Amino acid sequence: MQPRMPNDNLSTKPFTKVTVKIRPTQLSTFISGMEMIGDVPIPGSKPGGVNIMQYGPNPMVIGQWNTYTIPLSAYGNLPGLDIYKVSFQHQAGPGVNLATDSCEFDALAFRS
């Protein structure tokens, strides 16, 4: 999932965290990242993205909404920067049937 910000430009200045709800059909993990306009990485961001599993239920509860609240500082040096998009990447665990594996996202929100 890669939602783009309104007008492709969201100031992070008033926010300290981002919250997302995920409902998986099988055991999964997720990483997340943010980019500035032009797909420019956030200064100080970690290669490979942010493992969001430390910010909510781990392991996820299959078939239920799992809420993850990630501090913006986990994405790098964001205070006052404008972002273009945030992404969430599903990483299927061992033994997952990829033919039937899916997940739903809800309630993506930036918060102070």
Topology:
Elements: E1 10-11, E2 17-24, E3 28-36, E4 40-41, E5 50-51, E6 66-71, E7 82-83, E8 85-92, E9 103-111
Antiparallel strand pairs: 1-7, 2-6, 2-9, 3-4, 3-5, 3-8
List the main descriptive attributes of the protein structure presented here.
3-stranded antiparallel beta sheet, elongated, mainly beta, single chain, 4-stranded antiparallel beta sheet, 112 residues
- What composes the largest sheet? 4 strands, antiparallel
Number of structural domains: 1
- Average pLDDT rating: 89
Number of helices: 0
Shape, principal axes of CA atoms: elongated
Strand content: 35-45%
Radius of gyration over all CA atoms, rounded: 14 Å
Structural class: mainly beta
Structure description:
- This protein is mainly beta and 112 residues long.
- It has one domain (6-111).
- The chain is built from no helices and nine strands.
- It has strands spanning 10-11, 17-24, 28-36, 40-41, 50-51, 66-71, 82-83, 85-92, 103-111.
- Strands 3, 4, 5 and 8 form a four-stranded antiparallel β-sheet that branches. The protein has a three-stranded antiparallel β-sheet with strand order 6-2-9, with no helix packed on it. Strands 1-7 form a two-stranded antiparallel ribbon.
- It is elongated and about 40 Å long.
- The two termini are 23 Å apart.
- The mean pLDDT is 89.
